[in-house]
Amino acid sequence: MQKNIAAFGGDPNHVTIAGESAGSIGVSQQMASPLSKNLIHGAIGESGASIHPTMGPVSLEEAEKTGLEFAKKIGYPTLAELRSLSTREVYELYNESQRFGFPAVLDGYFLPKTLPQIFENKEQAMVPLLLGWNSAEIPGMAFTQGSYTTENYTNKVKEAYPKDFEKVLELYPSDSEKEIELSATALASDRFISYSTWKWFDLHRKNSDQPVYRYLYSKLRPPLVDNTRASGLAGGTVERGEDAPPAPKPVGAPHACEIEYCMGNLHLVDDYACTADDFKVSADMQNYFANFIKTGNPNGEGLPQWDAATGKDDTPPVMVIDTESKLIDAKTDARYEFLDNAYGNN
């Protein structure tokens, strides 16, 4: 990026990297890696960090074992045989294997240690960071695997947290079916990707002197124009089967739905019935991000004030990005502190 950006009108001495989902996970790794940390001057992460349980790196030994098992399964068990294959052949063999990705590796080169270890040792890129996640990253039924009844929800919580289920039910309460839907959505989202992003936020604000700006994207997606389509998990739409039940009413903003807003591409999106409110959110988000890229600070004229979080904040500021964006104090970080203990990342 530094070698080539000047040809595109960019400043090689002021590079901000950004990504969403797997891209955000990559940004967190680039901040941590000794190979890249000195090449960047700012970072933006939208929903995701390479911290267990969200695509955290594995040991070199485990990665080599996984790679050998894959090579044997596709019938090319040696490096020489694998290297004789074309990119297309590897791609097709990978698809046929029905494998879902390969993890990042603690290879002693790109990643010498886990991200929590690197950040706690203050070995990461010491740059301004803007990051956040969406208010309903994944549906609650990803956790309940069924109805939002008290019995089903409680049983699933006990199954996932047999020793701490009472604490989980306190943090993610279940006094009514609607509350269970909201709690299950929060728990599923936290386990999927919100917790790892929070941990990245928490590590950098406590182990750097750089500003860290946190958001919660909350704009409800407008309805689909074509009822034969359904929203895709990673953005876009997919064909909805004839027997598929109607989609439940959204309780928040799902994973990846903010991409076209922050990129200013709403005018290219025909699948959703966007309104003036959507374009307002898009303009505000673009301005926040552009200001951050230019100055390391998202604030600017006509935008609600966005305060940076510090390592001493017990209820750090969070910018709720919505039709009327507003800064609030974090109310739910006890959830992430509990998960921090449960995942052993503290």
Write down the CATH class of the largest domain.
Answer: Alpha Beta
Strand content: 5-15%
Based on helices, strands and strand pairing, what is the structural class? alpha/beta
Biggest β-sheet: strands ordered side by side in the sheet: 1-2-5-6-9-10
> What kind of oligomer do you see?
single chain
Specify the biggest β-sheet: 6 strands, mixed
Number of strands: 10
Distance between the termini: 34 Å
CATH-level-2 architecture of the largest domain? 3-Layer(aba) Sandwich
Number of domains: 2
Poorly predicted ranges: none
N to C succession of SSEs: EHEEHHHEHEHHHHEEEHHEEH
CATH level-4 homologous superfamily of the largest domain: Alpha/Beta hydrolase fold, catalytic domain
**CATH-defined topology of the largest domain:** Rossmann fold
Mean pLDDT, rounded to whole units? 95
The DSSP helix count reads 12
Principal-axes geometry comes out as globular
The helix content, as a percent range, equals 25-40%
**For the CA atoms, what is the radius of gyration?**
21 Å
General description of the model:
There is one protein chain. With 346 residues, the protein is α/β, with parallel strands linked by helices. The chain has two domains: 58-102, no CATH class; 135-343, Rossmann fold, CATH 3.40.50. Helix content is 39%, strand content 12%. The chain has helices at 22-32, 60-73, 79-83, 87-97, 115-120, 141-144, 150-160, 165-171, 177-206, 259-262, 276-295, 333-343; strands at 16-20, 42-46, 58-59, 105-106, 129-134, 212-217, 229-231, 237-239, 317-321, 326-329. The strands form three sheets. The chain has a six-stranded mixed sheet, sandwiched between helices. The chain has a two-stranded parallel ribbon with strand order 3-4. Helix 9 packs across helix 12 (333-343). It is globular and about 60 Å long. The two termini are 34 Å apart. The model has no long low-confidence stretch (mean pLDDT 95).
